[in-house]
Every structure is written in C-alpha cells, then in structure tokens.
Amino acid sequence: MLDNALRKAAAVWLAPEGHAARLVWALWRDDTVLVAVGGTEQDVPGLADGVPCLLTVRSPTTHSHLVDVPVTARLVDPDEDTAAALRSARLNAAPRWDSVYRLEPS
Fold first, then answer.
1. Tens of pLDDT along 25-56?
2. DSSP for 33-59?
3. What is the pTM of this model?
4. Residue 86: which of 50, 32, 20, 14 has the closest Cα?
5. Domains of the chain: total
6. Most buried among 2, 6, 88, 104, by the most CB within 10 A?
7. What domain range is 24 assigned to?
8. CA 66, 103, 89 angle in degrees (round to 5)?
C-alpha cells in the first residue's frame, strides 16, 4: 500500500520525533522516500540523521488519510542520477539543498 500511495504523492506529512507534523515535498525513487532540505528547499525542524519520524501519506486526490509509517531519517549523499531526479521534480527554477534524507521504515 505504501508503494502505491507514494508513487502518486508529491508531498507527505513528516513529524520528526518531538516536532509537529509538517507537509513536505518528497520524491519516491528506487523504492525509497527522499526529502531535500535547506538552501532554497523546505525547512524541517528536528530532521537529522538517525532521528525517528512519523511519515503520513494522504490521497493526492481526496486528501484522505492512507497510511502512517514509522521511519528513520538517514542523511545521504545523492548520486548524480538521484540529484538530477530531485532537481527535475521541483517547480522552482534552480533548487539547491543543504541535505537529502532517505526515510527508512523502522
């Protein structure tokens, strides 16, 4: 169910431990969720390597709740193909980020 939901969702709700949920842009790529933060990208207070989070996916059409998944944020250094996918999926002209996190199911 998570796979199908994330293939269609461009944004998810993410709540790093001790912080309120925040709507964030995310990219589903190679069976993982990626979140770019800092720079010209979104700010996600509390997001850091190894931090437990709750990922909530809602329907992109009805906005109804689909699934909650406990995840752990893992700081990654995206390869060129992944960085290109992150850039091409964004609406802003020249996205720049400080960090990219992979959200791994706990």
1. 998 888 889 999 998 888 999 999 999 999 99
2. EEEEESTTSB--TT--TT-EEEEEEE-
3. 0.87
4. 32
5. 1
6. 6
7. 2-105
8. 80
